[in-house]
Amino acid sequence: MDFLVIQALTGLASASSLFLVASGLTLIFGVTRIVNFAHGSLFMLGAYGAWTFTSGLGWAAHAGPLGFWGGVLLSALAVAALGALVEVVLLRRIYQAPALFPLLATFGLALMIEDLVRLVWGPEDLLGPRAPGLEGAVTILGQKLPAYDLALIALGPMVLAGLWWVLHRTHWGVLVRAATQDRAMVGALGVDQSRLFTGVFALGAFLAALGGAVQVPREAVHHALDMQVIVEAFVIVVVGGLGNVVGAFLAAVLVAELNAFGILLFPRIGLVLLFLVMAVVLVLRPHGLLGRPEGETRAAVPPTAGCWRPAGATGWAVGLALAGLLALLPLVADAYVVSVAAEILIFALFAASLHLMMGVGGMVSFGHAAWFGLGAYGAALAALGLGAPMAVGLVAGPLLAVAGATVAGWFCVRLSGVFLAMLTLAFAQIAWSVVFQWHEVTGGDNGLLGIWPDRWASDPAAFYWVSLAVCGVAIALLRSIVFSPFGYALRACRDSVARAEAIGIDRVRVQWLGFVMAGGFAGLAGALYAYLKGSVFPEAMAIPVSIDGLVMVLLGGLTTLVGPVVGAVAYKTLAIVVSSWTDHWPLVLGGLIVLLVIAAPDGLAGLARRVARAASRGAGPGGREPAS
Amino acid sequence: MTLEVRGLSAWRGRARILHDLSFSVAAGEAVALLGRNGAGKTSTLGALMGLIPETRGDARFNGVPILGLPSHRIARLGVGYVPEDRRIFTDLTVNENLAVGRRPPRPGVPVWTIERLVTLFPSLAGLRDRRGGQMSGGEQQMLTIARTLMGNPSLVLLDDPSEGLAPRVVDHMIQALRSMKTEGVGLLLSDQSLTVARHVCDRAIVIEKGRLVHDGSVAALDADPALHGAFLAL
């Protein structure tokens, strides 16, 4: 009993820090409708900053409580200034863009920050100082609790009260609440939205950094904090209701207590429990505990460029000719190039499957790697557990992915926009943690080794041809789905749910089926990947693979049909070239994402089309040119 | 001259929704913007308020070009906007709604305080701590006009202010609009029929399919069944 009380108090202490991060995230979303993926990075910077100001520089260590809390505050203020800068330089350009773009841009930022943190502070964990005056422990019911935890328990409600005061008792706060409801109207009443947004972003960054800074005496500072925190903060914000500060507080307590007790009861499925709670809350209350339905949600993806047309005889001829040309590669290239080419083909299929979901279905996924990974594990388990030949493995993999996508899809298609994207992320994390922790079956982080293709396909050239055939047929199939009656229904749901439902389309079923199909094709790519590499590790279904897929689709052009394939080839080639001359691929990738979102949101295919149109417009009759 | 519009065109996506509109509103004048459903009334007001990004032509307010300006800059020049769907901040109290609209006084323009607004809209008097979402449609319409007046505008654009209101509430609103006009606030108000315009406005402009088709006195329009039938009847 006594032990449970202490455990509950420890949970509350963690809840405070989580609430600080989540409140900032939810405030920013409420006003700007941007989900800030870099919020965990701001938390991490706050922690590193506090470490530097309180012990890294050496001068504050002797200054007592003033030095410690001064350092914490200084760090949070510095990060707030950085947040304001990010808002002005980056986010201000993309407020009107579909929800996918701000999400990706801030993710790119997160990648860059993580790499820069590694450059500045080094890769080792850093141990912070204890808070002066709060080093000891307090005895409660015969159990000891760090005094610092008590201080943290008090901090959460204090910040909540402070935020409430600001939002309800200051003119600025009234404007923030008004803008949370209707930004355009606030503007029409003479309020400068840009300045309001900058202020809100700075406040959100301040809260995130403060959350990180106060954790320094409790936990080591390391450069994986960002993703760890952002995933938890997402869950809290979604469970509490996007934009709702009080909801974030309740959800932070819920999540922290769940962590504290979940680990006791089910030590190995703590993370799974977390996401299960989120899934349950979202299905029962799609807008979170205290959230309310969004008045007008903006589109998740941009409208398609022009009108998609079936390939026609010429198109198929070009496709076949291209495949024939690709089939000649092993005759002129060495084994390394051939196996790299096979990998590119596999990722082209992965990107094309994600495109079915996003570009055709309008459902943004941040967890598509889950199906890729399940496909890989399905094939690996068939090969190792049953000794099945490759043909069976290539069926077993997609089947496992389809099974997983069927379950996840049932939940996901009940939501839309950023909520759906976050839920896909949650399911991918569940799948990852199951694979990571279920040692007996998956080998945990040791992975599964020794998955080789059948003898007839074991030569790199032979395997390349197999990959070419499988991926070529699958991509052609994906394309024909787009122009099937089902594809039309899926596109109708993407363009207007209300209109699609009004003409009798069962939106939930159509999107569910689209979700499952996309998962199945991703699983096929994953199964091939397992045989290509000869091994499977949990990394195959981790966040970076999902992001790779997103960048490929975006790079090629989300709004076109050839985009994903072009993007996969360009992205993989770029990754291989850049990785060969620098260790800072995340920095380059992050910069690339940010640049892409700002300068070429329609990708390479869109860029090419714009160039072509500009060239033809020079000759033909000019289009209209609005003044602004 | 307060508002001077020359050759205003606007687009939504690829569709052109306004075609070379030219008209003006003098200082303190009340002008009705009439036309059938879908004629472009809301778009005209939206374009003038900076809410439609793709526009061409010229619109000047007290000599300052306003097309292409962000809407908060236009509002700060003294143009008030009362949208069609009212867009009350439902989570905020009446006082807070009014606070969002508050701007500093402008020389030569009537200055509004919450006390004066309560005299103008007596129905708001007892509701100052009520949340916007808990008010009736008529009360919300009064609040949205009051909120706009908190910015001390010299011209107010009203988008179909009588829509969906009970006749008695419409009468109250007509009285309020006439008081505003007497104070010297210019009005440009869209109306599907002549319900409000007849009692408030001096001049009427009629648009059809995004084009200006008539500009004359309200009395003349009201008296001429042929004009009436050509431009306004369904």
Automatic annotation (TrEMBL), chain A:
Pfam families: BPD_transp_2
GO BP: amino acid transport
Keyword Cell membrane in annotation: yes
Molecular function in Gene Ontology: branched-chain amino acid transmembrane transporter activity
Official protein name in the record: Branched-chain amino acid transport system permease protein
GO CC terms of this entry: plasma membrane
InterPro entries (alphabetical): ABC_transp_permease, BCAA_transport_permease, LivM-like
Keyword Amino-acid biosynthesis: no
Transmembrane segments: 6-30, 42-62, 68-91, 150-167, 196-217, 229-255, 261-284, 305-329, 335-357, 420-439, 462-490, 510-531, 551-571, 583-600
Family: Belongs to the binding-protein-dependent transport system permease family. LivHM subfamily.
Annotated compartments: Cell membrane
Its membrane topology: Multi-pass membrane protein
PANTHER family: ABC TRANSPORTER ATP-BINDING PROTEIN, BRANCHED-CHAIN AMINO ACID TRANSPORT SYSTEM PERMEASE PROTEIN LIVH
Annotated keywords: Amino-acid transport, Cell membrane, Membrane, Transmembrane, Transmembrane helix, Transport
Lineage start: Bacteria, Pseudomonadati, Pseudomonadota, Alphaproteobacteria, Rhodospirillales
Broad class of where this protein is predominantly found: membrane
UniProtKB/TrEMBL annotation, chain B:
Record-linked SMART domains: AAA
MF term (GO), any: ATP hydrolysis activity
PROSITE patterns: ABC_TRANSPORTER_1, ABC_TRANSPORTER_2
Gene Ontology BP, a term: L-amino acid transport
Cross-referenced InterPro entries: AAA+_ATPase, ABC_transporter-like_ATP-bd, ABC_transporter-like_CS, BCAA_Transport_ATP-bd_LivF, P-loop_NTPase
Keyword check for Cell inner membrane: no
Keywords: Amino-acid transport, ATP-binding, Nucleotide-binding, Transport
Residue span, ABC transporter domain: 3-234
One Pfam family in the UniProt entry: ABC_tran
Similarity-based family: Belongs to the ABC transporter superfamily.
Protein name (Swiss-Prot/TrEMBL): Branched-chain amino acid transport system ATP-binding protein
Organism listed in the record: Roseospira visakhapatnamensis
